[in-house]
Write a structure and sequence with these properties.
The protein is of the alpha+beta class. The protein has 2 domains: 66 residues, no CATH class; 207 residues, Fumarylacetoacetate hydrolase, domain 2, CATH 3.90.850. The chain is built from 6 helices and 19 strands.
Amino acid sequence: MRFVSFEKEGHASYGLVEASGHYRRVPAAFQARFADLKAVIAGDALAAAAEAARASGETLAPEQVRLLPVIANPGKLICVGLNYKSHVAETKRPDSEHPSLFLRFNDSLAAHDDVVLRPAFSERFDWEGELAFVIGTGGRHIAKENAFEHIAGYACFNDVSVRDWQKHTHQFTPGKNFPGTAPFGPVLVTRDEVPDVTTLTLETRVNGQVMQHASLGDLIFDIPTIVAYVSRFTPLSPGDVIATGTPGGVGDRREPPLYMKEGDVAEVEITGLGVLRNRIGTDHSAA
């Protein structure tokens, strides 16, 4: 199953993606019980949502709605850094015994087709294509062998970074939390449709040029390891989002460096999960 979150005529809703590419919005009575996809996941009701949408949901063409981040309000939004050998090598950082983690705020999320704004006071606006997964069943101290049972589904993620602010200190937080700089979507693909995530391929393109290309099998810390590690220090809850890290090929480490500018189009494509596409704009609010 594939789900989208969207806004139509100022009203936030969600629905099922049909094979035709159209959306089937859940009926109002169902949304009254489950306000958004996070609530559906928490209620273990993804199958029920799909059934309700198919039975009596309104059919919508993509151009009739504005997409939202597939989960716009995660309780936790956790990102893994330095999780591909190719990226570790280009940053010239040493290997780590444990996953490198940082947090994003919910207002840093963006949706497919949103214009992602580069702050006018920074020229170092960089792409980071990633796979993100959404927790379905919460838990603490989750064993690696049970990790996939706790995942609801997967989506594309672009951990767009303001590199100069990221590097003000050894803490990543400022450069990773400018508003609307983390596109997430376009769809949530449920775990049953992805029997082996390690076979998927991730590709990031800017203006059609391939910048990153890697197998999800190349993760240093795989998804079971990430789930087990994170759940040791904090409880995971339904709707929490974890982004798994980016491969080599970021703009900041190219010779010469290459950054995104106004008018550029960034795309993150993952096998079977669709294409997450965003145009780059400029935020002049601090001018």
